[in-house]
Every structure is written in structure tokens, then in C-alpha cells.
Amino acid sequence: MRVLFTVFAAKPHFYNLVPLAWALRAAGHDVVVASQPDLTEIITATGLTAVPVGDELQLVRAFQGGPDDSGASPWQRLTGLNELDPQRLTWPYVLGVFTIGCAMEYEYLAGQRLLDDLVEFAREWRPDLVIWDALTFAGAIAAHASGAAHARVLFGQDHVARMFAVYRQHLAAQPPEHRDDPVSDWLAGRLDRYDHRYSPALDHELMTGQVTIDPTPPWMQLPLDLSSLPVRYIPFNGPTSVPGWVHQAPGRPRVCLSLGVSGRELFGAGVVSGPDDIVTVADVVAILAEFDVEVVATLTEAQLGAAGTAPDNVRVVEFVPLNELLPSCALIIHHGGFGTTGNAVAHAVPSIIIPAPWWDAASLAELLEQRGAGFLADDTVLTRDGLRDRIARLLADPSHRAAAAAIQAELSTAPSPHDLVPQLVALVASHRRQPRPEVAPCAS
User: Fold this and answer.
1) Digit-coded pLDDT (tens) for 245-277
2) How many angstroms separate the most distant Cα atoms in the chain?
3) Tag placement on the chain: N or C end, fewer CB within 10 Å?
């Protein structure tokens, strides 16, 4: 079958899809990946076929424009999809989330030219299946316009489906004259452009997929009633070479400090905690230098900042694949991105998570702490002394490593991307609306 993957131009989101894309390719299916031109070289470097669609996204510029005191740009804080406090989830709040999301965020990630290009390609190539990143709603629209079955892939906790369920509940409770529905309006406008009639019954499918491919373990998932296919998280850190020292046994405990691909490329340098006792990246490096450990800090020069020359026990490298580095580590300190957290969990390495101010970083940290496999270090507890204490506890107490190993063992029982392939074939058999026409044989 033909499989079209689509993802907005962000490396972490694309890397989350690569193991499944290659599982389908290895099983003999045709696979292409559509994204903005910024991602073309990155896609082809993985050995997959790229289909450039739309204009360049320039995500770095969007994220680094005008940061606030937390280091987050206003663009990052617009939608509030990850709000969990029931007291705040009023109709005005939830309506605002999707009004801003449809008008700005979703429109930014899936602009009109991208949609036009993607739908045109899908109608010409006729994929049997579209697999789309959970924020790339253009994939669902292109699948519907071309008659393909489609599935979305999560990159962490499913805040889209959770918030959309709250939105639909609130909407149904409003008097008819007050039922503003920006989601339906946004979807209807896009379907109409491609001569497809919108109906409210399509909302759920176009926002959450015909099925959801979920790489999060059950204890990380939000309680949702969705059709889902569990899959084991497989770390993919991008094509790279591995320095020889990575596989040399360290003479003392090795600690990794990483802000992940997102931290490196989107957020740059800045504060990692505050406001009462500001802790910078340079402070974290200095605190680690106090311990009898070998530190591998995957930081840029800008992120290292005031630390200047790194202490003797700190090796600063701009990039090293975590999948290769973490098996030799006793601890990782990171920002809580799903990719970095997934690597840590896959290799049974306890974490100290200084959560980035978006999506599920703080939630994942809380869940790891509840399992005994790490600590959440947020603004309420993270000071220089607090960080020093947590490093010492994780290095000295073997129970944290044992808890991480137990989680690793649980993950090994989940279906692999290879195991998922027959289920996706079955999805196509039951959901594809328009069979691809057979090509007539050439006359002899």
C-alpha cells in the first residue's frame, strides 16, 4: 500500500515518526513524507522520500521572537491546550483555546499553500493511508479529500483530544444562539475549498484521527475514550556519527545534561528556573562540577553562557545521540521533552526534569517522580540547593535506578512498529473510501 506521512517542519516531531515509517518501508510498502521545505534535507537524510509542500515554516523565528520572563515566546503560550485544572476549564477559557488555536496556531502550522499542495499531491499519488503528526491537522484534511484512511501519531500526552472533548461538552450545553464553534468553522472552510461538504460528525475524526497511534506507556496516558493503537517508543536521534569516547566505560558516574533538539534550536539560552532564585544553565553546570561525576553537556556556546570555560569534569558537545550515550549514564538532567524523556525511559536512566513551559513536560516529570524514576524540579522547588540535593539523592540511592529498570521492562512488552504494520493494513481495508485505480498494462 501507499503511505503518506505528514508533519510540520520540526525535527523532534518528525523523528517521532521515523521508526514507524521505516517499519512500513521494510514491510514492502511505499512511504513518502510531506512537510514544509525546511525539513526536506532532514527527511532525505533518514533515507526516506521527501515531498516539499507549502512555504518554509521557519519555526525557529516564531519561537524565538519576543520571549517572556520564562524564556517562552508568546506564540508558545497562546492556546493553553495543556491546562488541567478543572476550575479553569470554563466555556470562555476553552472557547478561547480553540479560537486562538484555529485562527493562529493551526493556521500557522497548516497554512493555505501547504494544504493546497498536500491535497493536490494526495489526490495525484492516491495514498491508501495518511499518517499525521498530532498537530498537523492538514494530514486529516488531505486524507479526507483524497479518500485515504488516516491515523494520527501522538508525541506525548493527548492534550488535543482531552481539550477537544471538554470543548464539545461545553458547546453542547450552550444556548443555540451562543454556540460559537471556531473548530467547525475552520474545518468547514478547508473542506469546502476542496469540494467536500462538512458535517459535525467529521469533527472528531478530523481532530483526533480515525485511530490514534500512541507511543506513551499506559501510566503516562490521559483517561480518554479513543480508538488507539499502542506502540513501543523507539528512540531515533537523527543520522549522525558517534564519537569513540561514548562507548568507553567512564571511570566515575556519567551524568548527561541536555535541553534536547527543541531546547537547542527553538529556545536558545536563558533562565531554567525562577523567579526567586534564578537558576541558569551555567548554574546547573557549576553545580554538577561539584560532584565526582563525568558530565556530558549537550549545549551550544550560547546555552553554556556565563559558565565560559567548562569545568574539568564537564565535556561540552553540541550534539551526541542520546540513544548511544544514555546506556552509560547514571542520571540525565533535561527539559522533559517527549523525545528526551522517551530516550531516558528506554534506557532505564533516572531523570531530573526542569520542565520546559509547554505541553506535557511537567506532567511527565510528575509521573516519573511518582514511579520513583526521577524528580520534577519546577519553579516551586528548584533552587541551587534544591538541585544539588536531588542530584545527590539520585546518585546515591539505587532504588531510583531500579524503578527506571522496571519501567524499561514494561515498555519492552508493548507492540513494536513492526507489530503495528498489520493493524494499519487492516485500518486501510476498513476505512479507505476510494480504491486506487489500477494502471492499465502496456499494450504489447
Assistant:
1) 999 889 999 999 987 655 444 444 444 544 445
2) 81
3) C
